[in-house]
Amino acid sequence: MTMQETETTVISAAAGAKVFPGSDSRRYNYFEPKGRKATHYEDVTVDVQPDPERYLLQNWIISFGDGTPTYSKDWTALKCTDWHGFRAPDQEWERTHYQRQSTIVGMIQNVVENARRAGAPQRFDKAWVTVLQNHVGAFKHAEYGLGTALMRAQRYGYTQMVNNAILTNASYKLRFAQDLTLYLAEVGSDIGGFDLDAGKAHWLDDPIWQPCREAVEHIRAATDFLEQYFAVNLVFEPLVGELFRSGFVMQVAAAQNDFSTPSVISAAEADYERNLANAVELFALLLRDPAHGEDNRTMLQSWFTHHAGLAVKAALQLQPLWSLPRVKVASFADAFERARNRVAAIGREIGIDADLPALPPVEVGQPAAPAAVSAPVNGAAAE
């Protein structure tokens, strides 16, 4: 009689039930680091979120009532052979994120306190004060909307690395919306007649902002969390967010005797560079996937077509803002061309076609007059 040896699969979670390769080592080598040695970011992030395909031998401990597991790969249309291969370029985790946020808040607080101490808000050009009140006040609602969309999206990533990148993105957006709210309240207290509710009124009713509001609401309504992450960082931000922040406010403010607002806005521009690097790394990984890359490319292309159409419409509707400052030092046509080239370059970096048509000549003619939703501050004319 021949005795046949059989191997029994160990499914117990009891300590010592299974011996893992390298389990007797004194080094953290249970995952493959991206570089030669594991970074602190990898030590505290990789495999923090469990995965039955790796170390959760007893499968999911908790599931939803309909049988959906705690985390599911089906929560996005994009597929990946190894979701654990993603590493955020900024290598941000809880402690470093709190440290950076604290540094930014401290910087902005110093800028505002010094500006107010020097009486700078009283020297702002009157027409520019109206822009701050009505339109920078409106833009904070776009930032808040994107932040809340990402706050929902961060729950659905299959690994902690993906969720961390989306979560810090949401945190930066919500912080910047708060930055603008507090900044306008503080400088507004030094300017007579400054209406803190005007921004909300313009966001809700001004025709200039309605396509922007529509684009944000489409992002918030998306049910695929990676579609939301993609639309925010690879479409809306370069075509609308940077267009307004860098192409308008930061270009124009100094000529209106306003040197504090660009400092506040600059924090959001630095935030975006980090968020963009993380998003590009993730989507480039998905498009390089040997098994699912082409299907992912098709899906991203469809997302781009949908959200870019809304973002371009929103950007073109903002054109009248460039005619509002009394001293005009920037043009919408130049700002939009930079935005168009920016999104095309991002598309090439991840591997999709993101080329958009150039601004037609009719669009750079005389801008339409903006709707009068609220009165100018101190009777200043919206020139």
- Global morphology: globular
CATH homologous superfamily name? Ribonucleotide Reductase, subunit A
Our count of domains comes out at: 1
Tell me the span between the first and last alpha carbons: 100 Å
Structure annotation, total helices: 10
Radius of gyration: 25 Å
Percentage of residues in strands: under 5%
InterPro entries: Ferritin-like_SF, MP_mOase_hydro, Phenol_Hydrox, RNR-like
Enzyme class: oxidoreductase
Protein name: Propane monooxygenase (Hydroxylase small subunit)
EC number: 1.14.13.25
Give the SSE layout.
Layout: H1 40-45, H2 94-117, H3 126-153, H4 160-188, H5 198-205, H6 210-221, H7 225-252, H8 261-287, H9 293-317, H10 332-350
Pfam family, one: Phenol_Hydrox
Keywords: Monooxygenase, Oxidoreductase, Plasmid
Enzyme class: oxidoreductase
Task: Provide structural commentary.
Its EC number is 1.14.13.25. It is a single chain. This protein is mainly α. The chain has one domain (109-378): Ribonucleotide Reductase, subunit A. Helix content is 54%, strand content 0%. It has ten helices and no strands. It has helices spanning 40-45, 94-117, 126-153, 160-188, 198-205, 210-221, 225-252, 261-287, 293-317, 332-350. The radius of gyration is 25 Å and the shape is globular.
Output the keywords.
single chain; 383 residues; mainly alpha; Ribonucleotide Reductase, subunit A; 10 helices; 54% helix; globular; disordered N terminus; plasmid; monooxygenase; oxidoreductase; RNR-like; methane monooxygenase [NAD(P)H] activity
